[in-house]
Design brief:
Number of domains: 1
Number of strands: 8
Strand order of the largest sheet: 1-2-4-3-5-6-7-8
Shape: globular
Number of helices: 9
Structural class: alpha/beta
Oligomer: single chain
Order of helices and strands: EEEHEHEHEHHHEHEHH
Largest sheet: 8 strands, mixed
CATH architecture: 3-Layer(aba) Sandwich
Strand content: 15-25%
Length: about 260
Amino acid sequence: MVQTERQSTELHWQSIGEGKDLVLLHGWGMNGAVWQQTAEVLSQHFRVHIVDLPGFGHSHHTSFQTLDDLTEQVLSHAPEQAIWLGWSLGGLVASHIALHHPARIHGLITVASSPCFSAKKPWRGIQPKVLKAFSAQLMEDFQLTIERFIALQAMGSPSARQDLKALKQAVLSRPAPNQQALLAGLQLLADVDYRDQLQHVCTPTLHMYGRLDGLVPIQVAEDVSSLMPSSQSFVFSQSSHAPFMTELDSFCQQVTEFAYLK
């Protein structure tokens, strides 16, 4: 198995396996360690690339201000062309690449993500007051805030206890994220709204959701399909916000089938 790990002056990258290039992007408050099991399975079919986003994990010494800034940092050391898979906040990053750097992407997969995370009637999402509360809590006790957010991601799943343990282990296995990046990430979740731009995504797209997700309500799947009728979607019936942990085999099967049959 071909495996490499590199730390540029900016971001930390890991690569494993051989085949089509597949980039995995983690969510807010997390780091690339959340993909360990997923990467081991997918590396049988792909050259899997995992990055710690600016300010997170081994990239904790860096940061970002805007989605453009974040994306440029990631693209600077990414494969020239790849399938991009983004979980939660990572889905916004992958979607941004599809919209603004289409030559760099030949397949888009979002996982438990939304083009607009903030609730805007009748759009379903996270209540703005909840996002504001997270921002305020970060300034007081950011360790406790992250732990609460991790708990929210596993809540509802039949395997919530195991998912929560795995997420915590992944986050704690690498340096803690820096506060500036955490606040900037929350700002993206509160402000970014790509609903009107989805029709301009030209690359083949798969949206995956957890039926029990409390952060990205399952109704978002139907709403996104209406906005982007050319895309595919899949719902994991036993999963909350982390289907790649709750239903690993099915998750990897969906990714592989999409990548090789699209």
